[in-house]
Amino acid sequence: MSVVSQVKPRKGRIPEFIFLVIALGIGLLAYILAYAGHNNNELPPSLIAMAIGLALLVFASHVIIRHFAPYADPVFFPIALLLNSLGIVLIYRISLDKTNVSVEKQFFFSAVGIIFMTLIVVFIRDHRMLRRFSWTSLIIGFFLLIMPLIPFVGAEINGARIWV
Question: What is the dihedral of CA 65, 77, 125, 135, to 10 degrees?
Answer without folding.
Answer: 160
